[in-house]
Amino acid sequence: MVKGINLSYDGVVVVEVVVVAVVVVVAIVVVILVVVVVVVVVLVVVVVIVVVILVLVVVIVAVVVVVVVVVVVVVIVVIVVVVIVVVTVVAVVEKEEEVI
């Protein structure tokens, strides 16, 4: 038999105190577990948000790098083409002047 605290003068064991104590302990444990679960969920959400932000930053940086590289390559190609055209035109003009 479950014995509790004897609060009476006639020797009768008061089981209700034990039941109340058990209920209070269970309630405290449940509250602690709920708080722990909420904290863990919040931490997981924060970690997921941070990871998503980092991935977005990496993707944005990669896109910017690719765009910069493409622009630099296009500028270099345009400069080379312009130089080739200018040199060719100058050479053709000089040959025509020699013929004349």
UniProtKB/TrEMBL annotation:
What are the record keywords, sorted?
Answer: Membrane, Transmembrane, Transmembrane helix
- What superkingdom does the record give? Eukaryota
**Transmembrane domains' residue ranges:** 12-35, 42-64, 70-93
Q: What is this protein called?
A: ABC transmembrane type-1 domain-containing protein
Give the source lineage, highest ranks first.
Eukaryota, Metazoa, Spiralia, Lophotrochozoa, Mollusca
